[in-house]
Design brief:
This protein has one domain. The chain contains four helices and no strands. The longest helix has 16 residues. It is globular, with a radius of gyration of 11 Å. The protein is mostly helical.
């Protein structure tokens, strides 16, 4: 995921753990990915993760 967002693994890890925010460009990409995933048929076991990203 860090590669897709063009951030370091450390940045991604800190974001996932809630200790830091992502850079603006990376956050925009995350928002776009979440919006796309919500539009398509997302399996029920993935949906809780999408709501946490908003």
């Amino acid at each position: 995921m860090a590669k897709l967002l063009e951030v370091t693994r450390g940045n991604w890890s800190m974001y996932v753990s809630g200790r830091r925010k992502l850079p603006k460009e990376a956050q925009i990409k995350v928002n776009e990915m979440v919006a796309f995933a919500k539009k398509v048929n997302t399996p029920d076991h993935i949906s809780p993760y999408l709501s946490r990203q908003e």
